[in-house]
Amino acid sequence: MIGWRAPLALAGARWAAKRLGHGHDPEPPPRPAGGDLLGVLPWAAAGVAAGVGAAALSRRRRTGRLTGRVALVVGGSRGLGLQLAREFAAGGASVVVCGRDTDSLDRAVAELTGRGAAAHGVSCDVADPDQVRAMVAEAAARFGRLDFVVNNAGIMRIGPQEALAEEHFRAAMDVMFWAPFHVGRAALDHLRATSGTLVNIISIGGEVAVPHLLPYSCAKAAARALSEGLSAETAGTGVHVTTVVPGLMRTGSHRGVAFTGAPEREYVWFAFLAGLPLLSVGVERAARHIVRAAARGRGHLLITPMARVGTAVHGIAPGLTQAGLGVVGRLLPAAPEQVEERDGVEASRSPAGRLVDAIGTLNERAGDRLNQEPRARRG
Ligand SMILES: NC(=O)c1ccc[n+]([C@@H]2O[C@H](COP(=O)([O-])OP(=O)(O)OC[C@H]3O[C@@H](n4cnc5c(N)ncnc54)[C@H](OP(=O)(O)O)[C@@H]3O)[C@@H](O)[C@H]2O)c1
């Protein structure tokens, strides 16, 4: 948030320093001792005041867009969704979060309320269209309006396609394509009434199909088409649709991911990449960008340099990314004869898994901050 405030204050101080150094005066008149310092103080004070004033203005403009508004974050009980709810609430919005697990939902609502937010939780499995419609209706009724609706719920199953069943693809489509479809259908009238924004969290995996993530990539690609199509069809109606394409974010979600095939080996490569600071971005920063884009009704947002480069290269030379991912695919663990399945906490029990967790310490800490499955279960 300091972002552009600091440069303003610095510019004021630098201006003052220039005057102190008599930058424009080759032969400065003699001054009494201490006069330089006294002369520069008003300029330094003006620089700091300009920085502080600009910061306050920026904060007022940001909160101005959110105060009195209502945000529904689907899948807001943990991870990125919880951080988005915190960000909306920090700007003055009331928030409704949903998820299946009532314990983590209750913890999320208690935390948001503890921060002074007006928050409400709805227990809902978004794979069920009836539950989705009831959830959107309850969210709209709770605070009387809906200004932002974020399709954030996601699930991930990692493994080679030979180890995956058709039902795994269907489950991914239910949560990451059909759920946004039903949420959008139920929410659009509410959003039209407030000139609100529907936000769809897609993924770089929906732009470029990633090996061992096929159900996820298929569902995200379909969701991206839905989001961009809705954006085009609602243009000029007052409703905005924001398509968000993040690269890797440190949300600590690897603990809850399902690993199939050779789970311990799948865990190692995935948790390693997800935790690398150079490849992944902090979730707080990502959430700030997303909420700002939603408040401005931006159509598209790419997050992380990797997502920008990946999307651009794939758009220009899809054969090249295909060849590169072919190499990656050959490096990933082959499907074993005996297919096994574990969640991230269990799959991390190998020595290599523990080492990867130690390397990806930022992602581990994010998991603790973001209400993720406790590591203590690992034993
Ligand atoms: N993390 C990344 O690097 C990354 C990168 C690109 C895109 N994304 C996308 O960003 C979004 C958030 O990711 P994340 O890492 O924060 O995931 P996460 O920590 O696993 O959180 C997922 C959220 O969705 C909810 N959810 C899952 N299935 C649901 C269902 N059937 N019904 C209702 N709620 C459900 C979860 O709650 P319950 O489990 O209690 O239901 C949880 O609140 C996802 O759409 C993901 O695909 C993530």
Automatic annotation (TrEMBL):
Residues 69-252 form the Ketoreductase domain. The keyword Heme does not apply. One of its GO terms (molecular function) is oxidoreductase activity. This is SDR family oxidoreductase. PROSITE patterns: ADH_SHORT. Belongs to the short-chain dehydrogenases/reductases (SDR) family. InterPro entries: KR_dom, NAD(P)-bd_dom_sf, Sc_DH/Rdtase_CS, SDR_fam. Keywords: Oxidoreductase. PANTHER family: DEHYDROGENASE/REDUCTASE SDR FAMILY MEMBER 7B (PTHR44196), DEHYDROGENASE_REDUCTASE SDR FAMILY MEMBER 7B (PTHR44196:SF1). Its EC number is 1.-.-.-.
